[in-house]
Amino acid sequence: METVREKIAYLRGIIDGDSSLEEGRNGFMFSKILQILEQLAADVDELKKAQEELDEYLQEVDFDLAYLEDEFFGDEDDYDYPEEWDDDSEESFAEAECPECGYVMRFDEDFLFDEGIQIRCQRCGAVVFETDDFRELEEVFDEDTEPESDD
Description:
two-stranded antiparallel sheet; about 55% helix; about 10% strand; about 150 residues; single chain; mainly alpha
């Protein structure tokens, strides 16, 4: 495939070879068009070269960043993450909706089994959960699961 510069040189050869195009307005216009095309070709070549330099620079930065990541983080299997980052944590949470304002609160599920616990809404202060409520629920579940006696 011919380059842009080769195509422009071909057009210049055609114009230079035709004596009728060298004289008058047509010759002047073709000459100016060829100058503009040559300038555009030079600008495109500069842009292409600058783009290649940017690509090389970006690739070097990427390699440097990868090296720094390896040095800083190392092998992820060797790194001890804080316990709160662990997805396998045994902590579980319960959610309860405030009966007054509808705000959904999240709290540690261990509170459900403690005696004398009362959880209040963070927004309005209404009682959201009391351990006595859990005992009532437990009794309801026990009643549902007890086998019926055959009378």
